[in-house]
Backbone:
């Protein structure tokens, strides 16, 4: 009797728990989480040191200016490298460079003390080194995700990658605040250096899927990435909306030390404020995909922008610590909802051959605006008040929300291009 062969049904996407158990994506997720948490140890400790040395919100903003200027200038070229060379090796080199900068600052503060630094310049110098490594890392982290999972799991991997950043934002600042209170800022800088080493060990252990053979005649220039963005009907609105999210969330970095002082709280409360933002984001990760299915990318992005603006206005008007924490939780929820929707919209459209370049431009939209935003936020806070600066920062996401009213961010065919394409 002839046997009837039955074709197996296509396997659906893996659950988040399955992805976290995967031998390639799982270690990357946890290594990225540790590394991102270390960034918050660095950010909080640097803000505390500069504010202690200068009592200037503007100079606290300079820390963000230096870090994110590197992102603005170097990330596009990192994207070019990521489409030409092995992304894992490039990411390892970037992590080692950042570890060097963070480690040197930890040693300097431990040996000399904060007052012995003679001013904020050593913090600024270390920030530049870390920022260069960060600028190289950001597009590589985005572009390598499709190499870590099967094509059907790309959506889940993108969402989980966004969660690492926001879980780190929830965990890192509170832990950093506690560590600074107990052991000083040198310990926080040292922990940050170690987190880069953890990520290097993970990257050495995993083996990403190889990318397709590169066409030797293809245009692999940065200009080609810009041309694709200009030609795609969705890419430009996504980049502009991402810029608005980056600008609207900058006060979490620049103004929280001043908010804590205004509310009569110490350095530890700075960590609580930033952690509230991250906790709101992490909680929203549980429902963002359900929201996206109901509202689409445009509606989901608009919801995120609205929540981000509402949270910043609430922080500006907060009469005490509890309302301030609640306001930042709302803002963090908006950040996660908006940024996850925008990341998914662009990842589903970009061809694999220029993924690193386009995601580098997306990263510049998110992070490269921070230098200007930090200067504006810090300067306004010094010239007027912290509440005024927060209120002004909330205007940018509101403008983007209105501007998206007639822009459809969903794929033309309503499907997931990246998950169906023969990416690997």
Residues:
């Amino acid at each position: 009797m002839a046997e009837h062969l039955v074709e197996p049904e296509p396997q659906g996407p893996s659950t988040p728990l399955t992805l976290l158990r995967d031998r390639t994506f799982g270690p990357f997720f946890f290594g990225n989480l540790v590394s991102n948490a270390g960034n918050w140890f660095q950010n909080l400790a640097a803000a505390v040191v500069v504010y202690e040395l200068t009592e200037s919100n503007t100079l606290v903003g300079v820390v963000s200016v230096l870090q994110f200027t590197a992102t603005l200038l170097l990330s596009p070229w990192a994207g070019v490298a990521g489409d030409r060379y092995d992304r894992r090796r490039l990411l390892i080199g970037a992590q080692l460079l950042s570890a060097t900068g963070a480690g040197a600052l930890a040693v300097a503060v431990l040996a000399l003390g904060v007052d012995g630094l003679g001013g904020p310049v050593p913090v600024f110098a270390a920030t530049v080194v870390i920022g260069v490594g960060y600028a190289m890392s950001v597009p590589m982290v985005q572009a390598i995700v499709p190499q870590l999972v099967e094509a059907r799991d790309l959506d889940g991997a993108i969402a989980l990658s966004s969660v690492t950043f926001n879980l780190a934002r929830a965990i890192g600042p509170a832990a950093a605040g506690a560590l600074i209170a107990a052991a000083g800022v040198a310990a926080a800088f040292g922990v940050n250096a170690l987190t880069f080493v953890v990520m290097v060990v993970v990257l050495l252990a995993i083996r990403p899927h190889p990318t397709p053979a590169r066409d030797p005649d293809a245009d692999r220039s940065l200009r080609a990435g810009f041309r694709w963005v200009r030609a795609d009907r969705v890419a430009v609105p996504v980049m502009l909306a991402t810029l608005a999210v980056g600008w609207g969330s900058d006060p979490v970095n620049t103004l929280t030390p001043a908010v804590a002082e205004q509310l009569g709280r110490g350095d530890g409360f700075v960590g609580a404020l930033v952690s509230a933002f991250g906790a709101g984001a992490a909680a929203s990760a549980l429902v963002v995909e359900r929201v996206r299915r109901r509202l689409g990318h445009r509606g989901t992005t608009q919801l995120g922008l609205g929540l981000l603006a509402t949270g910043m206005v609430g922080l500006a008007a907060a009469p005490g610590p509890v309302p301030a924490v609640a306001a930042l939780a709302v803002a963090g929820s908006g950040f996660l909802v908006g940024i996850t929707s925008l990341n998914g919209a662009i990842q589903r459209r970009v061809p694999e051959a220029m993924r690193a370049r386009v995601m580098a431009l997306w990263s510049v939209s998110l992070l490269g605006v921070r230098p200007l935003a930090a200067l504006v936020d810090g300067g306004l806070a010094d010239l007027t008040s912290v509440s005024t600066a927060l209120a002004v920062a909330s205007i940018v996401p509101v403008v983007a929300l209105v501007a998206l009213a007639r822009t459809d961010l969903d794929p033309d065919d309503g499907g997931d291009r990246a998950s169906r394409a023969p990416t690997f």
Observations:
- The chain is about 75% helix and 0% strand.
